[in-house]
Amino acid sequence: MGDSTKYSILLPTYNEKENLPVVVWLIDKYMTRSKLKYEIVVIDDASPDGTLEVAKRLQKIFGEDKLLLRPREAKLGLGTAYIHGLKHATGEFIVIMDADLSHHPKFIPQMVAKQKQGDLDIVSGTRYASNGGVHGWDFKRKLISRGANFLTQILLRPGASDLTGSFRLYKRDVLKKLVSSCISKGYVFQMEMIVRARQFNCSIGEVGISFVDRFYGESKMGGNEIIGFAKGLLYLFATT
Ligand SMILES: Nc1nc2c(ncn2[C@@H]2O[C@H](COP(=O)(O)OP(=O)(O)O)[C@@H](O)[C@H]2O)c(=O)[nH]1
Ligand SMILES: [Mg+2]
């Protein structure tokens, strides 16, 4: 690898002060090792735990060109966090991932390699194919994720194996187009992106990832997200 292509990595954070330093350190380690040019855009939604202060300290270590801080005033949700981050990203490719260490940065170079092989529009990390997996989730959470994937597969036939995951690489312009065509704002956003991608005939590749449940902090997934997902799914089923 190793060229002048820049990868912008969007990290939405809400109460991730323990996780952020490790994620940033790992991203730097694996991108540098693979000679990939990158910038990280942290979108913090006024985390009460002081994530932003931690991010500011990291910025002093890694530099303002590597670590961009684009905070928002309040917890405005994941979907709009990506839109906000995308506005400020300068790379030709955008990586979207969680900041809670569930997504290991070591998979980014694999996604990059996959993208290059076929000049793909999207490479999606998958837990449900290609040796991917889930670790540390209880039965209920596994069931919710599997169930959401299963229902979506049946109703929408999206042509990707992991629809609720959020570890993906996009061509910047493809992501812009997808984002502006997506109407959902919550967790269902990830799923809608792949459904829209298929509508636009985007090429999608997959890389198996091992997803590890967060060790620090709490998941923001709850009943509201599940209801939101179900509503979004039905909407897409009715309209696409
Ligand atoms: N900026 C921002 N980040 C969020 C918000 N909700 C969740 N996140 C971040 O999105 C990622 C995924 O959230 P998480 O709670 O781990 O969801 P889970 O992995 O599905 O349980 C993490 O990096 C969170 O810090 C939000 O409203 N705003
Ligand atoms: Mg998580």
Automatic annotation (TrEMBL):
<comment type="similarity">
    <text>Belongs to the glycosyltransferase 2 family.</text>
</comment>
<dbReference type="GO" id="GO:0006506">
    <property type="term" value="P:GPI anchor biosynthetic process"/>
</dbReference>
<dbReference type="Pfam" id="PF00535">
    <property type="entry name" value="Glycos_transf_2"/>
</dbReference>
<keyword id="KW-0808">Transferase</keyword>
<keyword id="KW-0328">Glycosyltransferase</keyword>
<dbReference type="InterPro" id="IPR029044">
    <property type="entry name" value="Nucleotide-diphossugar_trans"/>
</dbReference>
<dbReference type="InterPro" id="IPR039528">
    <property type="entry name" value="DPM1-like"/>
</dbReference>
<keyword id="KW-0460">Magnesium</keyword>
<keyword id="KW-0464">Manganese</keyword>
<keyword id="KW-0256">Endoplasmic reticulum</keyword>
<feature type="domain" description="Glycosyltransferase 2-like">
    <location>
        <begin position="8"/>
        <end position="178"/>
    </location>
</feature>
<protein>
    <recommendedName>
        <fullName>Dolichol-phosphate mannosyltransferase subunit 1</fullName>
        <ecNumber>2.4.1.83</ecNumber>
    </recommendedName>
</protein>
<dbReference type="GO" id="GO:0004582">
    <property type="term" value="F:dolichyl-phosphate beta-D-mannosyltransferase activity"/>
</dbReference>
<dbReference type="GO" id="GO:0046872">
    <property type="term" value="F:metal ion binding"/>
</dbReference>
<dbReference type="GO" id="GO:0035269">
    <property type="term" value="P:protein O-linked glycosylation via mannose"/>
</dbReference>
<keyword id="KW-0479">Metal-binding</keyword>
<dbReference type="InterPro" id="IPR001173">
    <property type="entry name" value="Glyco_trans_2-like"/>
</dbReference>
<dbReference type="GO" id="GO:0006488">
    <property type="term" value="P:dolichol-linked oligosaccharide biosynthetic process"/>
</dbReference>
<dbReference type="GO" id="GO:0005789">
    <property type="term" value="C:endoplasmic reticulum membrane"/>
</dbReference>
<comment type="subunit">
    <text>Component of the dolichol-phosphate mannose (DPM) synthase complex.</text>
</comment>
<comment type="function">
    <text>Transfers mannose from GDP-mannose to dolichol monophosphate to form dolichol phosphate mannose (Dol-P-Man) which is the mannosyl donor in pathways leading to N-glycosylation, glycosyl phosphatidylinositol membrane anchoring, and O-mannosylation of proteins.</text>
</comment>
<comment type="pathway">
    <text>Protein modification; protein glycosylation.</text>
</comment>
